[in-house]
Amino acid sequence: MQPVITIEGLTKTYKSGLQALKPVDLTIRKGEIFALLGPNGAGKTTLISIVCGIVTPTSGRVVADGHDIQADYRRARMKIGLVPQELTTDAFETVWATVNFSRGLFGRPPNAAYVEQVLRDLSLWDKKDAKIMTLSGGMKRRVLIAKALSHEPDILFLDEPTAGVDVELRKDMWAMVRRLRERGVTIILTTHYIEEAEEMADRVGVILKGELILVEDKAELMKKLGKKTLTLHLQEPLAALPPELGEWSLELRDGGEALDYVFDSNADRTGVPSLLRRLSDLGIGFKDLSTRQSSLEDIFVGLVHGSQAEAA
């Protein structure tokens, strides 16, 4: 698939000596939803800010839809919409005026029908004449999204877009994201709500201490790294694991009343049947069992902790 964003050797080192980004190479495909995950301070916002032309890189190159973000800034920036983390809007303007003004900043001719549709999609139409200073935090967040969409960008960056907003806005926004992708818009998002990335993203990137440590198709990532946990709720609690169960990686919890076994569901031999036979042979009964598939959050936490351990 044709890349819409190409990032090559991108770095950022501030005057203080802080290296916010180590060399980053990344291509983002046209029409996909790409989720960038990482803990606070990992470099997510720095990377987005460079691609959007807000921060100047120390080295490297970014091309957005065929336009170099530095050599051809104006054309590259016209392709991009950005919803920042911070609630920065003109408090004394009306919703209608600020969204139309934002459209004009990108050289787009007036299009009242388009702006109306954006406001309706974000449940802002009945607030179009309200001054932004009178809106709630959630409504101000909706205005930021409307501003980002005002010039009909082909690429949309969402930097922690649902942080601190209500459930209704979150649902509205993700419904809108799906509609945008259906129209061919490429979406790049950072989020702390990892379940959102798991539901929405086509691919996932993990960034840690300025380094992109993994980029993978979400489905493939879940297949390769996702584990299953078998939990057995025992009839009688165990004080300790019998040595006869040593060949399985088991964990006792809940005061010895529950037994967890983590296994690779894609393996030819999971070890589950032989474990159940051995428990029966030992006279260890269970009253219930359940399995749980590892989530993207489990995988993310494991990757981050694994990388931190290697660095130590």
UniProtKB/TrEMBL annotation:
User: Which InterPro entries does the UniProt record give?
Assistant: AAA+_ATPase (IPR003593), ABC_transporter-like_ATP-bd (IPR003439), ABC_transporter-like_CS (IPR017871), ABC_transporter_ATP-binding (IPR050763), P-loop_NTPase (IPR027417)
Q: Which UniProt keywords apply?
A: ATP-binding, Nucleotide-binding, Transport
Q: Which GO terms describe its molecular function?
A: ATP binding; ATP hydrolysis activity
Q: Where is the ABC transporter domain?
A: 5-234
Q: PROSITE patterns attached here?
A: ABC_TRANSPORTER_1, ABC_TRANSPORTER_2
Q: Which SMART domains match?
A: AAA
Pfam families, per the entry: ABC_tran
| Region forming the signal peptide | none
What protein name does the entry list?
A: ABC-2 type transport system ATP-binding protein
Its source organism is: Brevundimonas viscosa
